[in-house]
Amino acid sequence: MTTRRMRRTREVTTSGEEEDSSSSSGYDLYRIQGNTNAAWNAFRKNTKEEQEEDERNKTILAYNLLLLGYLNDSQHKSDTLLKRLDEMERSVLQNESISEAIKKQYHYFGVYNRALVHFASGDTEQTIRIANDAVKAIIQSKVQPEDNNIPILTQIAFLLLEALLATAMGRHYGFQHEMYDCPHPDKILEWLDTLDIDEQDAPIKFMLTLYKGRVDLAHLDESGKHMDNKVRSARKELKTAMEVYQHKLRQCFGADTASVVSSANSEGNSSTHFHLSSSSGHDYQQHQRPSSTVLQKYGQSALNLKAHLEQLKGNTKKSLILCSEAQASTKEDGSYDAIHENNHAVVYGTSGKCHLALHAMSKALRATKDPKDIAASSMFHNDGTVRRDNTPEILHNTAICALQAKNYLSAYECMVACITRSSHFRSRPRCWLRMAEACIGIFSELNEQHQRNDLSFTSVVEQGEPTGIIMEKSMLHNTMEVKSEELVASIGSAADVEQVKRNPLLRARSILEITIVWSQRKSTTDRDVLIAAQLSLVYVLLAFKDYSEALELTSKVLAEENREPGPVSLYRKRQFATARMYAGEALLNLSRAKDSVNLLAGDAKDESFGPLAVDLAGVTADQAATNEKAKAQLAKVEAMVRSSCSAAYAASGDMETAKQLANSAAALEDAHGVKHNQSDARNALIYALLREGQQFAALNVLTTFR
């Protein structure tokens, strides 16, 4: 019910009547002290004492009592409030004694409060739709608003920005305004800039500069990275916001309040808290001082944004200090603990300290509430600010941290819990891709255990002499066998988790098929996710021995190679190189060895393997020449490429080239300490020798390395 004003004039909006002191006192009790109960009692007293009020004041009192009563009721339901707000607006519209201008104003109050209730309940998309319908035409200069409506329209615009920022969070391709037929956030800020913001309107000035900084940070380039010019602009806007806060905002709210208490969202950005808007007899026109708790939340938003900027600079220590300063004044507010630990985890995770990040995330999860408790608790603080459930964001970030720490089962469970609790995250293809990656990670752990426990070869000895070798596992597919079974229908259930532990690629296949479909929607096409999901699905299909479908999918990925706009990034080159390796394996298993050779080796010259290895390693030749770690990575990948090509040549009948490539790969492995029982080159050499009929030579290689 707290509102923010744009103009501080004592001009009244009706026929010129003076402000009612008792009504104003109830309003001030809430605005200044944040005391919902006292304000409600004051308005009730005013209702009983003033029996001859005009129809407009009666409506004002009824409206404010409705909102204050809602905040005082611990058993309130958002659906009930939305229904009552609709009823109140209809009664105002049907009242012939109220002017059209006042009816319009009440309509905007209803729009703001309905949108805010949806935002508090986690329905960000509905918030955008409601707020956008109210301000879209005005922002696009198709409709000129009345001056008296500017203040509430400003608040609706800020709420729309907040919701758009929430939907853009974690998306490398930015805002989703086109999906909702909504103005771009830059356009909304341009409209807010055109307003005549009085020097005394410090809250509006502060919010405007803060949102400019947040929108700047939400702008990302094609690779999903922050743009330098936007980061510099965000720093400039934050500096202005901090100056407004220190020199104007604190004086406006009361200089006795120095602490700050607001929240940042789960990606490290700041989040401005909104309030239910109440109606007063002068609709923002009275010179009233807002609640000091709101000042604290403004300040905390700025501190969290500053922490985010320091995080981008790589200044981990300063970022953590700023996060702690933001929490310092919230000792009595346990609802912020989860957000604080989440922000710590984000800073740790982006600085490479994945285990510290996971530890902080575990504390954040412990501080969150059970869904049943959340449903029974208030969506608003006592001062009317939103008490939003941040559990989905925290679960999402915990899943990412768990992936970084290679705790794949926890990553899967957290991401499943995230999409189960949030329709917003459920609609994001990247969340599904992360679940599939977690399943593939679980499979890789099972496969490593399988390789350690099972021998690849067993020698056959007759009368004391070796006569042959039995291969217990495929030379080309040194992986555990994937079994087909019925997929558990309920994702995230106990049965599903048990199946994922036992046969993770079954769930991965289902998830990746969903991801590919969703990532190709016209309104939200995410090319990075599409290609990554296609490659991951190829990996799964190869494990299922579905080689034809795997080859078809790699062809789609490789077809994108000539469609790259501008220079091809190292990341994209690595994806295309991976697709070539997968396609070569699929061709080989389809008895198309020569096609596999042509795809992997081209003209069969030794130097032709270099570019493929460089692309697959994700490093440049210059990096390998100056960095030992990059050099070792390139050598390891080149050995793998040569081993794969050796197998292809052996299958096509060119044994000399196959053995030559296998021996050169073995030399690279030996130079970098690859264990013999993990040697792809050794396996390739044995395979070539067996194809050539040299069983004793193959057995000698096997026994030499055991």
Automatic annotation (TrEMBL):
GO biological process: one example: negative regulation of translation
Q: Where is this region: Disordered?
A: 1-27, 264-288
Highest taxon, organism lineage = Eukaryota
Where does it sit, as one GO cellular component term?
CCR4-NOT complex
Q: Bias category Low complexity: which stretches?
A: 270-282
Question: What PANTHER family would the database entry show?
Answer: CCR4-NOT TRANSCRIPTION COMPLEX SUBUNIT 10
Q: Which protein is depicted?
A: CCR4-NOT transcription complex subunit 10
